[in-house]
């Protein structure tokens, strides 16, 4: 890396790195550092009458040097603890370089250090570690954005969402509570997996690359499989493969994995997301609602210690049972319009009368879905099962046992968003084929989310699939609910981001065209001249002086251009 691309702090850290090496200290040692304690455990188990020696390691997050004694704050994977360091304790012999040079001068905030010492309580009552040995474990070359306070005002806060998501590794270090969110996410997944395993269901893996994007209505990502010389789809759901396993004789199967939908991004949607899908033989929708209620109540209690969670001042209770409401009743309740018995044209006319953005490509099911999304979805704050979806909205769902034209399906709404989607699964292969054909008609009308016929899945159904309940739960949205977060990026370690914006720069070749040597280009950029047009209005002597200042500041051993050479650059830049 060119030194001119670095900040002054980064340059200083690299100089410290070289000085450490010249002293014979490896800034990145390979040997194991055998820790035996964590900061939180030390504080929780401390006893005043105990003479305990510990070995800890972590980042140095602050340092207060007071002559021959100093305090440092060490952050490990659990929390932070104060370390008391004295010159003569860590340097018992004649050589005091470890304290005077290494600790005081060459270490920086963010460096990883290892400490061996005894636990004690300071005069101010703070539990600390009195260091007897200090080891550098890893030198950091970039400064952390540590928040500083002056007169009650915070400076250098690392709170820009785009920057936090892009540099999650920094966000986790400097912002309190971020790591806790992802520990809770792990608890949610671990608890869900335990519930499903204890119920006797088998966790499986199914293909992510699929020849047909099936199992949901969504626009897929397309890639090319070179070895087979064919286009493939990133899966939009795991459903059809999991059902094949039910056909093959599994009693119950589930998968927690990534799905990919080439659609919009907002606070509650990310094209790459985590979903859990479960399929259980010989069960139906009514059993599924009861099972889902109990599972979510148990997960909420595992994460928050109780079956309630507070989000934006609202207490949401996952205490079973949840409300159950047919979708057409929900639409009628919120709009006064009864979709039951209405034709596609009548529903479209009502949507248009409400100013909704609908068109001729949308079938009856899509129009009902748009109505529900526009007027109903956001109103359901407490967990609510929306049931009895029209068949046009549910091409993989069994017909309702007692209500013609409807299906045995529910969506679970919580805090105004869908959390789960579930069916009594369609296992009639003839009915399934007819519904696939209807979906293809929608695709012919221009619906790019309509399903493609999966002939192999139809063949599997013809061998016979038992009555089956199936459910999909969005893990990211579940974590948002359980942790009280409003943006999906807050609960995904590395959400998808737009490419980083780069400052426009003229290339080295373009600078060369006006006579600027390659080694001078970084100097001009450091001085603020990223484009050739930036130097048009400069005076030759003034620009030469700015170049000279960069040479001097960074101690560059380069040939300084003459005023005449600089004038020639400027003249050509104005052509």
UniProtKB/TrEMBL annotation:
| Coiled-coil segments on the chain, per record | none
Keywords, A to Z, come to: Aminoacyl-tRNA synthetase, ATP-binding, Cytoplasm, Ligase, Magnesium, Metal-binding, Nucleotide-binding, Protein biosynthesis
What are the Aminoacyl-transfer RNA synthetases class-II family profile domain coordinates in residue numbering?
A: 188-499
Report residues binding Mg(2+) 2.
418
What is the reaction catalyzed? Answer: tRNA(Lys) + L-lysine + ATP = L-lysyl-tRNA(Lys) + AMP + diphosphate
What are the names of the required cofactors?
Answer: Mg(2+)
- Return the SUPFAM superfamilies for the record: Class II aaRS and biotin synthetases, Nucleic acid-binding proteins
Main location group:
cytoplasm
* Gene Ontology terms, MF aspect: ATP binding; lysine-tRNA ligase activity; magnesium ion binding; tRNA binding
Q: What is the free-text note on the cofactor?
A: Binds 3 Mg(2+) ions per subunit.
**Stored Gene3D superfamilies:** Bira Bifunctional Protein, Domain 2 (3.30.930.10), Nucleic acid-binding proteins (2.40.50.140)
For binding Mg(2+) 1, which residues are annotated in this chain's numbering? Answer: 411, 418
Per the UniProt record, which EC number(s) apply here?
6.1.1.6
Highest taxon of source: Bacteria
Q: Where, per UniProt, does this protein localize?
A: Cytoplasm
Q: Which GO BP terms sit in this record?
A: lysyl-tRNA aminoacylation
A single Gene Ontology CC annotation of this entry is: cytosol
The record's listing under PANTHER family reads: LYSINE--TRNA LIGASE, CHLOROPLASTIC_MITOCHONDRIAL (PTHR42918:SF15), LYSYL-TRNA SYNTHETASE (PTHR42918)
The family note in this entry says: Belongs to the class-II aminoacyl-tRNA synthetase family.
Q: How does it assemble?
A: Homodimer.
Name the UniProt record assigns to this protein: Lysine--tRNA ligase
Q: Specify the species.
A: Xylanibacter ruminicola (Prevotella ruminicola)
Q: What is the lineage of its organism?
A: Bacteria, Pseudomonadati, Bacteroidota, Bacteroidia, Bacteroidales
